[in-house]
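FORM 7B - TANDEM STRUCTURE REPORT

SECTION 1: FIRST PROTEIN
SEQUENCE AND TOKENS:
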Amino acid sequence: MSDPALPRPTSSKQLEEALDAAASNLDVGTDLSFRETCRVIGRALTYIRFFPYRFTAKFLLFGISLATPLILPWPIKIVIDNVILNNVVDPSAFPSYFAPFVNFLVGKTSFEMMLWVLLLGVVMMITIGGFGSTGGANDQVDATMAQGHDKATQTENDANSAFSKFAGVLGFVEFRLQLGLSQAVNHLLRSQLFERIQSLQMPLLSDTRIGDSLYRVMYDTAAVTNVFFQTVQSPIGAVLTGGLVLTVMAFNYGEAPEIIWLGVCILPIQLIAMLPFPRLMRRRSQASRAAGSVTTGNIEEGISNVLAVQSLGGNKRERERFSVHSNESFKRYRAELLVRLLYGAANGGARGLMGFIAFYFISSRVIEGVLTPGDYGVLFYYYAWLSGAVTALPYLWIRIQADVPGIRRVFFLMDLPSEADRSGEELKSINNAITLHRVSLTFSDGRQALDDVSLEFKKGEITALVGPTGSGKTSLAYLIPEFYAPTRGSIEVDGVDTQNIALSSIRSHVSYVFQETQLFSDSILDNIRYGNPTASREEVERAAQTAGAHGFISDLPDGYETLLGTVTSKISVGQKQRIAIARGLLKPASVLILDEPTSALDPETESYLVQALHEAAKDKLVVIIAHRLSTIVNAGKIVFLEAGRVVEQGTHEQLMTVESGHYRAFVELQSSSRTGLS
């Protein structure tokens, strides 16, 4: 995998080395090239297709906002030249699109002109919320909330980002539109990534840290907001604004061409100031995200193992470990922030230099009489707006460098092989048997779990998988619903190779009760019918009675409506296991697999469950993984595994007749253990 989970460090030095390794490993080496960066951006932009109307409306409003500098500075010129200095109104000194208003002012007194200018300002305040602003690309209304200085705590702002260059009525409309659009884009990407993680192949899931996946779903996805909006709006906005402003300046102030050329030089100067920073920003952002995911993983792991931590006195050690990870996360963000500050200083220096030169030339032309004092205000307004708009282009590229690593981390998980990618024939039912032909299974780290296994599981028969710990029993059972795919060999369902059957179809016919009980933060009723949502209350209670769970559930204050999320720690391991067994029994499936179903059951409940399984086996294919002799002794077929190979199979009576047999030794060992205990 090109984005591996970080190894657990044992010192701050090893932690730093691990984070550096993660930061330099984004795509067979994290340092994305220009082409790869553009590819990630292009893929993010494809999400526009899911919201064509809302994005078009937002884009149109944004386009209208770009036209505001065509109007805003000219009332300033009227106030200075015609109201304050009391010069005669000259319509030819104004752009043609503003001439009707100027012609209307011809012949009016200074007081009347001021009143009409104020009235124009009121109308503009109500509609666009601005009059006589200093301009600039960053003049906008933003939705911002309190945030901290690391990736995780800033993503709520990114996921709920909204802005408008307008205020007033149009600003409210645009702001509300983008807020909903930002949330919709982030919701879609989060949902897609969550769904993808849920459908990852089991080997990939087992190699993925939960905390890292959580970080990607909640925090990395928010990076799409800036790319989604800014990569479309900023370049177009900069080009249109710059073109409009330069055109208006050239048309009205052609007698001072050096000012026009100065405006043209803004972009090259800004690009030169930006050049040292994109790669630094990209690497620091990736390192910050890697450190954040390690911290999230540490939280998840610490909470999941809180009982072990408390019982083994590891509170101090876990607190210190978390402190190291958390401090490293903030440290990595400070490194990213330093790059931002350095770029800001370079950008500000370049803008300041150009502003000083502009001030010199404009002032000189006013002193020489080429320009009027009113032109001074107009040109400085236009220059400030032009400088802000053009600066948005290099700033956008720097900003994207901080976002692309997050989007890349999202797309990395989404591109991993998924079980949902496999289609094929739909099974109506499993009527006869599931057959394994010379199947072997080797894990990605080289360990061989199964070796040359040939076996048949028949419907109407209970098959018990027996053997020492690590012999491959669970791995073999995982092959039936294809949680694992065999490395070699083939598996057939009623004579059809499973590779030709839709994976979802196979899973729909298998009910699997895992050794590690997995319950949801929901009511007991909904937990039991999770695999059969339409089951009636009577069917749920019948399954619970079979699993020996009905009695203790009924004794709970809320019975079947008890929320496990609030009392799960107060329910015993055996009670949780009974609920899981009831859930497995209730699912209408042709295959029932139980991994150590009686490990936490008392003898009476175990006996009742075994009888129920024999009843269920009349029309199901039942597989039991167990160590207890009382659970497996009456199975139709017992398969004994050792070191990933089937060494013996048969009924209990048949296997007990094998001198020096593995199963016989297993039974005798259990018998002697019970005798010794008694």
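SECTION 2: SECOND PROTEIN
SEQUENCE AND TOKENS:
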Amino acid sequence: MYIGLDVGGTFTDAVLLEKGQVKAWTKVPTREDLMTSLLDAFDNIMAGVHADLIDRVVLSTTMITNLIAEKKYDPIDLILIPGPGLNTDHFKYNNQTYILSGAIDYRGREIIPLRDMEINYVLAQLEKKDSKKIAVVGKFSSRNNKHELEIYNKILQLNKNIQVEMGHLVAGQLNFPRRVMSTLLNCASREKYQSFVQSVMDALDSRGISCPVYILKADGGTMPLQSSLNFPVETIFSGPAASILGVQALIPPGETAVVVDIGGTTSDLALILRGLPLLSSKGAKIDGKLTHVRALATKSVPVGGDSVVERNGAELKLLSERSGPPYCLGGPMPTPTDALKVMGLTKLGDPKLADEAMRILGEPLGLQTYEVAVKIISLFTNTIKNEINKIFVNWEQEPTYRVWEVIQKKSLRPDTVVGVGGAASGLLTQIAASLDCFPVIPPYARVANAIGAAVARPTLQITLRADTEQKIYSVQEEGFQGIIEEKLFDLEDALDLARFWLNKRAEKYGISEDLGEVEILKKEVFNIIRDWETRGKLIDVVVQTKRGILHYIGTEVG
């Protein structure tokens, strides 16, 4: 049996699957005491089921997505070592960025040492402002982490309680701006994510569940929960990835549709083409800046069923924030959920409180409660419609989408919108109508995220780096360094060696039978030139077991 668990800002959803069938599901409020919500969810789906029967638990969460979308994280100070030739204006975030001299070249050689005077000045500034979280990133730190480590050690000598994030540990790929953004977000989300993981592990232990536990990544793959502690940035779009995998498992194979997952805090948009989630070729984009996080082509819009609605002069305004539950459920502010209640489109809440919420907004404007509700739902619908139209501009540039259009022999957009999430039943019809599309709400739509987590195929990753001049290679995940024995070692040899180690790692985790096709996430080759001759190569490759779903809901695992 598999458990899928999705922890959202408003609700925590859980499902129990057995051979492709939903045996139990639940939806409980996400409380400030997360442990209570998790225990309630486990108890609801595991009534009469012994913990030893659970083979695997997979989690997804929108908590980190919400944290970033609403900018509810502590200020992050950036210490950057970009080296010569880069315009540092691109790396300044709210005047919290410090630029240091020093440079490592592409081979990992120190060509400009750090200056102690500069470092001491920056540390004095950070001490004066009582900085709590710092991200340190050098341009070629993935080739040589000397400068990042030097600054890291000096910061900890100053104050061991400061959280310091180093770029070479977060992202090994080149492209300095993306590595800066990835490291910043990793720093911003680490504390809350570690607290989340600890709550999950405590809840599992208290119910005697001792099977392998995974977290869903932004690209629809998974990683062991304990391994994810150092890489919370990889889970930033975990919730949206879960919703699209859930829809993939709930609709017929080969379908094409826009996915709208309407939660309490955010609404996540995604696309399925010919039965497969669309992958972003450039990686996840946060606040308009690209990261090194490999992700499905999704977007989180910071409005949901619990978003605050306020009056602004003679207009109503839908805010990108949540102040608690809807007014009809005892919350402090009117929300779209209150509007849905007045219109008879949801069973949630007290109708008298919902009417009161609409009256608070409408009386100064001379509007009846039903008129206010219609205006709010129209605001919500237009917001989602506009975001879908904007993101389609990006989706249509993706190689996979272009291939789909070639197959269709014309330029067009999908004509189906699939709605999932707690508020989908009340809002999807209006959203689909505004886009001139057909609305579809599949079975178990309210817990689609948890289903997506449960059916996600386990994935493993191997990062291999080879230096053919020194005749050595290393495997990051295994902490292994070996000797290159071949006289001629090229990119294909490196990929074959990475696949070999991936198979070994899969055997260790007991998923070798599900290994299937291997995805190549990264392949880079740099020639080593000395005295005008090529003396060797630096080869970096990353391979991963193929992402996807184990089965469709209603079909047994093959």
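SECTION 3: OBSERVATIONS ON SECOND PROTEIN
The mean pLDDT is 85.
The two ends are 14 Å apart (CA to CA).

SECTION 4: SIGNATURE
Preparer initials: ____
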